[in-house]
UniProtKB/TrEMBL annotation:
The lineage of its organism: Bacteria, Bacillati, Actinomycetota, Actinomycetes, Pseudonocardiales. This is MATE family efflux transporter. The chain crosses the membrane at residues 93-112, 132-153, 165-190, 196-218, 242-265, 277-300, 320-343, 355-377, 384-403, 409-429. It is found in: Membrane. Pfam families: MatE (PF01554). The keyword Membrane applies. It comes from Pseudonocardia alaniniphila. Keywords: Membrane, Transmembrane, Transmembrane helix. It comes from the Bacteria. Belongs to the multi antimicrobial extrusion (MATE) (TC 2.A.66.1) family. It is a multi-pass membrane protein.
Length: 449
């Protein structure tokens, strides 16, 4: 690859990654604000938020194929010059988001209490989790519409408007949360559930903006707005593998939350603080991966040296991810004594935080490479491989150590050792795949497997 082409590609990556970064960071950053606001209520409300937050995260994590799968399919069509079909992917993904979101809302209300009670070990923590979760579930269809909107816009390499839309919704939530939780003026606020209502308000604004943009784009590019069974089936096929991959993540994080809860409110609250920072940092590093998804998909859809361009991009984003990961690891190590007190004044919780903190800081370089290569393989539509490798890493690495931590009383040290092994196994898997050419499949549509 020549120096000129490398510079051109670097410019493209930065153009897409720069606005994608605040979009990715907006939701976890709001959750960090939420954690800090609720943390002032004490350990039990914060522990309840930890349990409920992990459960509600299933909406975005388990169904992220609406974003990642749509990006991969739309990017190939965009690279092949078929913009109308690329926008059509967004239309169908949005129909799917609405249908699935309503199902999540109904089923979630039915199972909120028994599931939260199981994870929260009953008692006050479980009650707090249920009160938050029942309200937050109202926003499930809105969250999924936003995921679909981000997906098709990234596919057509428009990351500027999603930035404005997401910041508008999350900005409203961040402003409303402290007032609703703690009150303003002479009003005492409504406590923990105030943060859930702030979530719903922000999600309503964001989803409305994405829907408006989709309708305008469909009319401009003559993309049909009615459901298409053929496209929906294709999206569900790709989504099947991404859902299985997400199941591995959620089995790990739900197990970690359940085990942490058994060690008491202070332990699970400390875990919540570091986990939210991990989620925030993972998505910050994923900004480069978002650019890779769009550019790799477009390259593989293009008839002009697509395979060569895609492989060159894979090498670039790997280097970018490594550099960012090292930088953030050093930063969080330096902030180890400064940042945790921002989230809670509880001395017992702060005493528990360092156990997880140093695992979190040390994993940043590994995470930088893993998330970057995830983006490459997702952009190529190589979801089946990602599904299998992630499931194996969870079954072999994370889950045995999580449950051993409960059996032998290892606490946070055992939980975060499991997460570290999970990430190392994923690094080996995506690294080996990227070095091969098996993910490099050209054409406007990747053949189904």
């Amino acid at each position: 690859m020549t120096t000129t082409s490398a510079r051109a590609n670097a410019s493209e990556v930065f153009r897409l990654a720069a606005p994608a970064l605040p979009v990715l960071a907006a939701e976890p950053l709001y959750l960090l604000v939420d954690t800090a606001v609720v943390g002032r209520l004490g350990a039990v409300p914060l522990a309840g938020l930890a349990i409920a937050g992990v459960l509600f995260a299933q909406v975005t994590s388990q169904l992220n194929f609406l974003s990642y799968g749509t990006t991969a399919r739309a990017a190939r069509l965009h690279g092949a010059g078929r913009r109308s079909d690329a926008v059509g992917e967004g239309v169908q993904a949005t129909w799917l988001a609405l249908a699935v979101g309503l199902l999540v809302l109904v089923v979630g209300q039915l199972v909120a209490h028994p599931v939260a009670s199981a994870l929260g070990n009953g008692g006050d923590i479980a009650d707090a989790a249920v009160s938050w979760l029942r309200i937050a579930l109202i926003g499930a269809p809105l969250v999924l519409v936003t995921l679909a909107g981000n997906g098709w816009m990234r596919g057509v390499q428009d990351t500027a408007r999603p930035l404005r839309y997401v910041l508008a919704g999350n900005g409203l939530s961040a402003l409303a949360c402290p007032a609703l939780v703690h009150g303003v003026g002479g009003w005492a606020g409504i406590g923990l559930v105030g943060s859930a209502w702030a979530n719903v308000a922000g999600q309503t604004v964001g989803a409305s903006l994405f829907l408006g943009a989709l309708v305008r784009a469909a009319r401009a590019d003559a993309a049909p707005l009615r459901p298409s069974a053929t496209v929906l089936r294709s999206q569900i096929t790709l989504g099947r593998d991404l859902i299985a991959r997400s199941l591995a993540f959620q089995a790990c994080f739900l197990s970690a939350a359940a085990v942490a809860t058994r060690f008491g409110a202070a332990t699970v609250a400390a875990h919540q603080i570091v986990l939210q920072l991990w989620t925030f940092q993972a998505l910050v590093l994923d900004a480069v991966a978002i650019a890779a998804q769009s550019l790799v998909g477009a390259a593989l859809g293009s008839p002009d040296r697509g395979a060569e361009r895609a492989k060159a991009l894979a090498g670039q984003v790997t280097r970018y991810g490594l550099v960012l990961g090292i930088g953030f690891g050093v930063l969080y190590a330096a902030l180890s004594g400064v940042l945790p007190p921002v989230f809670t004044p509880d001395a017992e919780v702060l005493d528990a935080v360092p156990v997880a903190w140093w695992f979190f800081a040390a994993m940043q370089p590994v995470a930088g490479v893993v998330f970057a290569l995830d983006g490459v393989l997702l952009g190529a539509g190589d979801a089946a491989y990602l599904r299998t490798s992630t499931l194996l890493a969870a079954v072999v690495g994370f889950l045995p150590l999580i449950w051993a931590s409960l059996a032998f009383g290892w606490g946070l040290a055992g939980i975060w050792t499991g997460l570290t092994l999970f990430m190392v196994l994923r690094l080996v898997a995506v690294g080996l795949r990227a070095r091969s050419d098996r993910w490099v499949v050209t054409g406007a549509v990747r053949p189904a497997r």
